[in-house]
Give the backbone structure.
Amino acid sequence: YGPQKMQADKAWDIWSPKATVNIAIVDTGVDYNHPDIAGKLLKNASGAVVGYNVITKVASGQDDHWHGTHCAGIAAASINNNLGIAGIAGWNPTIANSNDFVRVMPVKVLDSTGSGSDLTVANGITWAADNGAHVISMSLGGTGSSTTLANAVTYAQNKNVVVVAASGNSG
């Protein structure tokens, strides 16, 4: 119901891509093999996914919880492929290959239970900002304010990265 409720089809019809936009999903990672997302992953010149696991410090943002994959789908799942959902970002039916102008950068900052710390999230924000993210999307929350997170968000913003965060599920 989301795309209909927000009238995404009206935006899709007027969106005119100028350059590829990289959306960092800072969460539990992203399933590299998900059929609705695999073709949208940001890759480097050698064909490897540009992703990172802040917890283990390896160059893989593979999801082991599924929340990050869910969020990546909402943001940028392939459109009109008869699979899953239509991602909100990046499609105009009148522009050839417009589905190719949005790329997903998986950044794993939460563990297999969906838990993490302000420090891992902040490090993920910084990594994404330093590695080509244009937008950082975070569907996560905490119990209070954090100077560590605020500093990381400011760092990303100073690099002209748009930071989008959840408003919470607690009402």
In short: The chain has a mean pLDDT of 91. Strands lie at 21-27, 52-53, 102-108, 135-138, 162-165. Residues 39 and 171 are 35 Å apart (CA to CA).
